Amino acid sequence: MNGDRAASRLETTTVEDLRRPPPPGPADRLRVLLIEDDPGDAFLVQELLTEARAPVDLDIAVDMASARGRLANVHCVLLDLGLPDATGLDGLRQVLQHSRGVAVCVLTGLEDEHLGIAAVGEGAQDYLVKGQVDGVLLSRALRYAVERKRADDNARRLHEVELRQAESARLERGLLPKPLMSTPAVSVVPFYRPGRHRALLGGDFFDVVQTEPECLHLLVGDVCGHGVDEAPLGVALRVAWRALVLAAVPDDDVLPSLEQVLVAERRSDELFATVAMATVDLKDFTTTVRLAGHPPPLLLNRAGVRQCEVDTGLVLGVVAGVPRPATRVSLDGEGWSLLIYTDGLIEGRRIPTERADRLGVEGLIELLDHPDRAQLPPEHLPGWLVGKVEERNGGPLADDVAVLLITPERA
Question: Which of 73, 140, 142, 203 has CA 20 to 30 A from 280's CA?
Fold first, then answer.
């Protein structure tokens, strides 16, 4: 998918990046590594910088092998393109491979100036021709190389953010679609919040489809994991579910078909998904629930909150062909609502209480039994609930949260 290609271009922070000295300020001394095998040329560079009183701390390596271990401690590399163990642009490529965050300024002979131009095209910040620079120009070139590298890195990071934002928007359209329904009998409030560790959406998804005047289908699912593979797989499952429902495939055959899609589309046999599927009869207000390793829905009314007694079934993608029985639930009680959610909502902690264990379904029911809940309009309830869960957790939740709340419209 496009998302995989975009994600593959996004670079990650390495241990070497964390060890690198912070970018120097205008008045700070530069740490420069000169990689030069000619003692005369190395001495000349030292003399030029000394005579110009350049704020530079110079270290010297005579070949690429001895330079590699020092790349993490410098701001800039001054690189000769004629080393005994790396000739031409090979030396530059090795520096960039082993330390992508360092600025590089290459040294060439007059007859090899074309190599300097090619080096800039390969990723160097500047080039200098030996014998044609003085100390002031050399110092200025090194400072310029560091500043240009900083600007290049900032531009790269901005581009990465833009890629993530664009990919997130595409995934959002696939994972979190607009409900396909026209009934005035009920309202459905969808809600999604990504976990704190991800810029992209995760593997949680939902959908709502009305196939007949009195039949409404709801889906909430979660692909395990938080990498770049989970969200596209969630999109595939969500789109497949909508297609199966619109094609009037019998409800008992939908989850086995989704499992086939999961097994065919996943990149690793370790990936699995949990799913909650509910078919609501809008004439008698009952729902038939089928679960594949998913938390059972909660039924809310003015009398309180209870978990629907439903067989949780086995997750999708572990053992094919396992039956997942359907359970019929009556949506009774004054002011009822049905809440279907992913387990990110109950994986938070009870940090503000005496027990710092997992919130769980019991903790979620306790929050929903709060007197304020009955006064909230349905469209505000999911956001209010997630906010309360985060308060108990002591901060943002680690996992994504997807919620569907179905409520009868007031007459």
Answer: 203
